[in-house]
Amino acid sequence: MKILFVFTLNVGLAISGFAQTLEQFRQEQDSAQQALREDRQNFEQQYVKDFNQFVAERDSLFAEMLRERFREIELSRALQITPAPKPTIIPTYPPNTQPPANQEVETDTASGPLRRSRSLMLPLPAQGDERGYTPQRTQLSFYDNSLFVPYDVRMQLPEYSRYDAEVLSEAWVSLSEAYTKELIHSLYRYKNQFNLNDWGYYQLVRQFTQQLYPSDDARATLTAWFLLNKSRYRAKIGYTDNQLYLLIPTNCTVYSATYYQFGDQTYYAIGEAPNSLYTYDQDYAGADLILNLDVQNPLSLGGNPQEKTFSFRYGGEAYQVQLAYNARAIEFYQDYPEVDLRVKLESTLSREAKESLILQFQPLLQDRTSEDAVGLLLRFVQTAFDYQLDQTQFGREKYFFPEEVLHFTYSDCEDRSALFTYLVRQLLGLKVVGLQYPGHVATAVGLDGVEGEYVERNREQFVVCDPTYVNAPIGKVMPRYAQKQVELVPLRNPYQQWLAEMIWDIASSNGVYPGANNHNLVVDALGNIYFAGYRLSPQVSEGQNIYLAKLTPNGKVLWEKTLNGRGNDVGQYLAINSRQQVYLAGRYEEELRLDTETQLNTSAIGFFVAKFSPNGQLAWLRDVTTQQPDLQQGFVAKLNEQGKLMETLVFDNTVAERGIALDESGSIYFSEQYEAATQRTRGISVGGRSVAENNASLALDVAETLKAESDRLKEQQYDPTIAGLFAVIHCIMQSGMVIPGTAALEALDRHNPAFRQDCPEIYANIGKLKFMKNESGIITIVNEEGGNVDFDKMRIKDQAKIRLRTFDDGNAQVDVLTGITVGKAFVRFNLNHVKLFKQDGSLLFDYDNDHTQVVMNLREDILY
């Protein structure tokens, strides 16, 4: 990745060497910017006042409830993993007797749902601090990463002589008076930086509270309870005998933890808990997330990877693979609660482990049939690891995450099943189900036309693959379990992760493009596919039209819908409920029509949410635009199932996720950023002048404009190395300019003439590319010669599309909609986005469908 994003980098860095400024460009912006600042200041003052009142009333009601509604409850005894005895010595195939081929294994009811939906990751807005506060900073050590977290000293609680309903109510009021927005947003940023799941966020909260108080101080538990609720996570607190206990709901079973059932939701006690305690029923308003313990995104905790070499034989050939794992990820898993087998079977690996597996195994799997490829992976897991029972190794039953198999010397059946499941899903994209026998765990893979024992789910056959039965081929069950009933553990379909890539490749070739790079495709329970974006209107004056389509599982179009108006309209996000009703969200200009009937009107730019039946009938269409002059703020609109707008809140766009999601009650959440809707210029301009698409003579004007913006950013303490790149982003967004490759070459020839000779191929490729500003904030990268342009490990297709965003903290992000990949010749991943950090010149690259992330510093890792 040494020259990732090199075209933009060279444009931005080369123009930083110019000595000229473009005063005209600056003057044209001053008046509009001043008016915007005044509008923003007025809005913020009123918003802070109104929102403070709203939060204060909510906190007051909650504190009053705490004072009056505590009651004693009995906690249920902790569930334990108590399987039947496992084999102490695993058999080797072939046994003395073999079960007949093509025999269906008797199965029990599948455990758990296939997929659990979750809400968008949006922090509950904390009130603005009208009095002002002096932030304190504390340092946390989070898996060998040093973190600095700001907080309000008013969060420090006094020592309490007792803990009861009255004291907890008083403590809530006291904590509510502190300014928590900056603290919560800081924790969210670290969550994103390390690619943590909800358990990781909880660990961040605990680390912070234990910096404020000793770990055995009840005030640490009390503060963690408060912060989780303010971060939108449901959490209750209980007390007995002057001790406090945290109760948290999760999306799966947690073993070895006592629990209490509130309605249909299980709340687990964190740590040791008594048989009974006092707590309350009503959750804090706005805390609507339950802790999701799935590990779907590769951890990015840093540190040097550890490596091991593994050997195995298959098909008469000997193989040796060198695999890496992340030691900090292993530490993270050591602190994890013991959870469902499903969580382990669906878990991903760290970036280091994932990419080493792909690089080592992809060449071995090339040109093999699916059956042969599964056979090779099965033999690797069966024979490359030593077997030992968990009770012998740990003194208790412990399910491994797949990466732990690479770390520990020994593993047993469920551990190997977790690693094998990951390999088959990640490398081959095949469906897998877990098989839970009494005292044994294996897997079954969705393979067509393969002989052997199988299980059936939803009319699909899955052939048994036992990662512990040494040398056993596909379709063979360990003899001692051949006549045992097995419980299926259904897992998400990995093919759906790849589906969006294939759908958008086909759609883009037919003139339909995504308006966002997430939440734009959903699959219903029957495998039908819905996707949404935009396409150009046949009438040029009508700009872009919203596009929504439903396909059968094999790709046949069932129906298509187009919503259009007088401007550039974009379908961005989709969600689907259990009744296969589809929700579409996006933005529009002036009006929005379905067929010939006008549905919505706005004076400029608006946002909408629409609901469609499974057969494509429009149930309702609602405008969710708010009066918000701050063009960089994010917002979230909450609607009920009938389309009534219940609430609209403004967020710091640095931490809010964009998209649409449904909660358990059927409410719809739509989150976007106003800035994404401000780009509605038809045509292209530089410094206010209309320019032709191919006007290369304006290369110097482009460079001068960028130089002026780069100088301004350096004065604002942007890292000098990355200021030029931020200048590129700002000028494209603000003025809609074209940045032709000729401008970059002009700058390179003037200020880095050796570049032409040192990097002739890159130099030539830069000249082929240019950015072309498009409507609705979508930018097309045009290759003058068509085809692909490669920059080291990055490949840019002609007509690749990106979207730019800037944030309140001054950082920026490049969202890739289509056409940019990273990797090597035989291993390539779609690039999702690149985040740019102004302070130190770091770049965060997010790629692949599991959102693998890596941070690189522009100065240290890319340029030098």
What would you note in describing this structure?
The protein is an alpha+beta fold and 864 residues long. 30% of the residues lie in helices and 30% in strands. It is built from 20 helices and 42 strands. Strands 19, 20, 21, 22, 23, 24, 25, 26 and 27 form a nine-stranded antiparallel sheet that branches. Strands 34, 35, 36, 37, 38, 39, 40, 41 and 42 form a nine-stranded antiparallel sheet that branches. Strand 35 and strand 36 (778-783) form a beta hairpin. Helix 1 (6-15) packs across helix 17 (741-751), helix 2 (23-69) runs antiparallel to helix 3 and helix 10 (370-383) packs antiparallel against helix 13 (413-428). The radius of gyration is 28 Å and the shape is globular.
Task: Chart the SSEs and their pairings.
Blueprint: H1 6-15, H2 23-69, E1 71-74, E2 107-108, E3 135-142, E4 145-152, H3 165-176, H4 181-193, H5 198-212, H6 218-230, E5 236-240, E6 243-249, E7 259-262, E8 265-269, E9 276-279, E10 306-314, E11 317-325, H7 327-334, H8 341-346, H9 351-365, H10 370-383, E12 386-387, H11 390-394, H12 402-407, E13 410-411, H13 413-428, E14 432-437, E15 440-445, E16 454-457, E17 460-465, E18 486-490, H14 495-509, E19 512-513, E20 521-523, E21 529-536, E22 544-551, E23 557-564, E24 570-576, E25 582-594, E26 597-612, E27 618-623, E28 634-639, E29 645-651, E30 659-662, E31 668-673, E32 685-686, E33 689-690, H15 699-715, H16 720-735, E34 739-740, H17 741-751, H18 754-758, H19 760-768, E35 769-773, E36 778-783, E37 788-791, E38 794-806, E39 812-823, E40 828-836, E41 842-847, E42 852-857, H20 858-863
Parallel strand pairs: 2-18, 12-13
Antiparallel strand pairs: 1-9, 3-4, 5-6, 6-8, 7-8, 10-11, 14-15, 14-18, 15-17, 16-17, 19-21, 20-21, 21-22, 22-23, 23-25, 24-25, 25-26, 26-27, 28-29, 28-31, 30-31, 32-33, 34-35, 35-36, 36-38, 37-38, 38-39, 39-40, 40-41, 41-42
Helix pairs in contact: 1-16, 1-17, 2-3, 4-5, 5-6, 10-13, 15-16, 15-17, 17-19
